Amino acid sequence: MFIQKTLNDLRTGQKVRIITLLLKGNIRRRLQDIGLIEGTEVECLLKSPSGDPIAFLIRGAVIALRSEDSSKILCI
User: Fold this and answer.
1) Cα dihedral across residues 52, 57, 63, 65: positive or negative
2) Could you give the number of structural domains in the chain?
């Protein structure tokens, strides 16, 4: 059994696969355009001291996401 979590819950160095995006509108489309879709492997690279933003490795690109957005992306 797999435990669902959000990208916001990851520790530095942890890798997961995306299940779904719970976002709507332009931000959802932008994230899908950079390849953040179901099945994509994502690695947490770095968290800022305050925890916002968080840097992720997504399909070979480093992308920083606000915790507000990363908390709405489910993964396993």
Assistant:
1) negative
2) 1
pLDDT of residue 51: 81
Sign of the torsion formed by the C-alpha atoms of 67, 41, 63 and 56: positive
> Residue 65: which CATH number?
2.30.30.90
Give SS3 for 68: helix
* Strand ordering across the sheet containing 61-65: 5-6, 73-75, 15-21, 41-47, 54-58, 61-65
* Pairwise CA distance, residues 36 & 38, whole Å: 7
Q: Are 54 and 46 in contact (CB under 8 A)?
A: yes
16-68 per-position pLDDT tens digit: 999 999 999 999 999 999 999 999 999 999 999 988 999 999 999 999 999 99
Looking at residue 3, its pLDDT comes to: 78
The domain of 11 spans 5-75
